[in-house]
Write a structure and sequence with these properties.
mainly beta, about 40% strand, elongated, 2 domains, seven-stranded mixed β-sheet, Immunoglobulin-like, 3 helices, 22 strands, about 280 residues
């Protein structure tokens, strides 16, 4: 009459043994990988042993343009053993604020692809790592790769434009309309890093140079070889497009028959500099 109690005890012992073995199975895969969390309930990932290798340190391709994205690539993380589905289930690229320590944000993610793209940081420098994952439980992270912005800002000339030849009064009116009062030229600047300065060098027939308020002779400091004057730069949206201006009064700057050369120098937060120039003429 005591046999049912005996059977119940055997069943309880078997269940206890199975549960203890299941818990042990999840822990075996921690030999080389950092356990972040146990597999979610109902997970189809069934690793019993094995190791997740470290993915390759990411390679950051050269930035294609002043505002172009950064392309990153890396080598796959190896998986040895591990039961079913023994391949990384995904990768995520982290952007770090420092070479060591610091804070990170996820720049981009993939499943099987070993490349992804992200926007360039406005600071002009960053560090990247790649994390390989298997399910939600195991993660290995690569070493950090440094990136520095080496591409200078790009620019366009709003007024005057390259090759323009116009009556002096008409040119002054065009500049006033496009650039507003207090400017003799203007344009836009673009860069992935923060734009920090805009300078100009405006010369005309006879070796004269514009100093921001008047034309001065070749003996003036403003006309010295390689000297640029301070322009103005509006950086309300420094990572996309900003407006630069050459200061002065358009009707004063453009009043005689002359050929002009305008050179604009833009510098970004990473120290990259771009010099761009145009020529134009005023007629009477």
């Amino acid at each position: 009459m005591r046999r049912p109690a005996l059977v119940a005890g055997v069943v309880t012992g078997v269940v206890t043994l199975v549960l203890s073995l299941v818990g042990a199975a999840w822990a075996v895969f921690t030999d080389t990988a950092s356990v972040v969390a146990g597999p979610a309930t109902g997970s189809t990932t069934a690793f019993t042993s094995g190791s997740l290798g470290v993915p390759g340190t990411p390679v950051v391709a050269s930035q294609p343009s002043a505002t172009g994205p950064l392309a990153l690539s890396w080598t796959a993380a190896s998986v040895t053993g591990g039961g079913t589905g023994a391949t990384p289930s995904g990768y995520e690229v982290l952007r770090w604020s420092a070479a060591t320590g610091g804070t990170s944000t996820i720049a981009c993610t993939t499943t099987t692809a070993l490349t992804c793209s992200t926007t360039a940081p406005t600071s002009g420098a960053a560090w990247f790592t790649v994390r390989a994952r298997i399910g939600g439980a195991w993660v290995r992270e690569s070493g950090r790769a440094a990136w520095t912005d080496t591409v200078g800002p790009s620019t366009t000339f709003t007024q005057p434009t390259n090759g323009l030849s116009l009556l002096a009064g008409a040119l002054a009116a065009n500049v006033a309309t496009a650039c507003g009062a207090g400017a003799v030229a203007c344009g836009t600047a673009s860069d992935s890093s923060t734009l920090v300065s805009a300078q100009y060098r405006l010369t005309r027939t006879g070796g004269q140079c514009w100093n921001g308020s008047a034309w001065v002779g070749s003996g003036n400091a403003a006309c010295a070889t390689g000297v640029y004057q301070a322009g103005t730069l509006q950086t309300s949206t420094p990572t996309t497009t900003s407006v630069w201006r050459v200061p002065g009064t358009a009707t004063t700057a453009y009043s005689i028959l002359a050929s002009h050369t305008l050179a604009v120098r833009l510098t970004d937060a990473a120290g990259n500099r771009t010099d761009t120039s145009i020529t134009f003429s005023t007629l009477l």
